[in-house]
Amino acid sequence: MQQNTANTSTALPTGESVLQGLPWRWNTQGRIFLIGGLGFMFDAWDVSLNGILIPLLSEEWDLTPSDAAWIGTANLIGMAVGAVMWGTIADRIGRKKAFAWTLLIFSLFTVAGALTGSLEWFVLFRFLAGVGLGGCIPVDYALVGEFTPAKQRGRVLTAMDGWWPIGAALAGFVSAWLIGTWGDWRLPLLAMILPALLVFAVRLFVPESPMYLMRQGQMEEARKVIDSMVTRTGAPVQAYTLETTQAPAKLSFRAVGEQLRLVWAHGWRVTTVSWVLFLAIMTVYYIAIQWMPTLLIEAGYEQDQAFIRTAGMAAVGLVGVVISTVLVEITGRRVLLAVSAPAATAMLVVLGLTMHLPVAVLILLLGFGLVIQIAIPVLYTYVSELYPTELRGSGFGWASTISRIGAGLGPLLFIAWMEPTFGLAGAFGICLIGVVLAVLLMLRLAPDTTAKQLD
């Protein structure tokens, strides 16, 4: 396999096509999927802690609703900063290094929050944890997606989101157990030292993306990774070419602005659709996951029941991810997203009308948790596929940033104005209008990416 010059016959396959044509093996691509998925699981766990901490710290520190809202808002604004920052960094220093750093940062600053006794310091630590959290998702998807064979990519990237409901559910169930047993709000935060241990697994078992290495001009390193993948999967050995491309500029403070310019230059239609979809759908999800415990407690439910019901809403999402994984290649990305996202939001509208009916609340919470996790994996897969390799991390990261800004400021608007003015059902109705407009824009402006080979 020593064909690495640009003058090699064009009949030879490229390194990218060899990599994306390999058979799926659990000891090869599956190992990267598992390690990346565990990082994603702890990401969900940490985000979902905001919903647990808001009612607990409101009581502990006698917070007003507007003050308590900053617990989640600071975390999500930090995620907005982290999403674009780490997406850009990953396109410069590599997926592997960026992924390890995001894990370490969100783990350490989450634990640091347990050591403070004031809202101001706690909000600062939640912001800094969010900076790490915000990078985990785009970097994770770029890393896993670039190792996954083209035939399985849609299902694998969709299945990645299965780790999210697992993490979100564990946050609720484990927190309910820790607080119910020992009564200390700090214990759920201290449990987040565990993601830091994943850094060692990343360093030992996850190679750097060959597609990234080729963009950096590191052809020998890229060849070593591809050859190793061919050997481990048992694929036939064949000659291939590695095309030299211009390496991106060195990382600098100007890189963020330059990457934003390149993202828009790639296509205003694609970027507009990506941003609007993320903003509409993820704002709805984060309002639900972070404020549902508080909304249930205000409606008269016991604290532990509010935590467990919200955890159940997250847990059933695993079934939604399985359904999404099955349907994503059958229906196509756009159709599945256009049906599932509005349907999930409509359930929250009905929930707002039936908060006094425990059975209806349980059914609607489980229904929302199921259907929203059909939509979100498709959203992540679809947007990551709309961009080429050199922009995949930053393109996804910028879309994720917009969603974090909306999800950070949205709850302040939702709790302070929308819900008091229009009622819970009316506030969720406004969210539904936003989601419907977003999917209509997608159907109008953006192409389908089903079964297309990544650039």
From TrEMBL:
| Keyword Transport appears in the UniProt entry | yes
Gene3D superfamilies from the xrefs?
Answer: MFS general substrate transporter like domains
User: Where is the Major facilitator superfamily (MFS) profile domain positioned along the sequence?
Assistant: 32-450
Protein localization: Cell membrane
> Which Gene Ontology terms cover its molecular function?
transmembrane transporter activity
- Coiled coil ranges: none
| Cellular component terms (Gene Ontology) | plasma membrane
**Record's Pfam families?**
MFS_1
Bilayer-spanning residue ranges = 32-56, 68-86, 98-115, 121-144, 156-179, 185-206, 268-287, 307-328, 335-353, 359-383, 395-418, 424-443
Q: How does it sit in the membrane?
A: Multi-pass membrane protein
Q: Keywords assigned by UniProt?
A: Membrane, Transmembrane, Transmembrane helix, Transport
Q: Which SUPFAM superfamilies does the record associate with it? A: MFS general substrate transporter (SSF103473)
Which InterPro entries does the entry link to? MFS, MFS_dom, MFS_trans_sf, Sugar_transporter_CS
Q: What is its main location?
A: membrane
Q: What is this protein called?
A: MFS transporter
Organism of origin: Nesterenkonia jeotgali
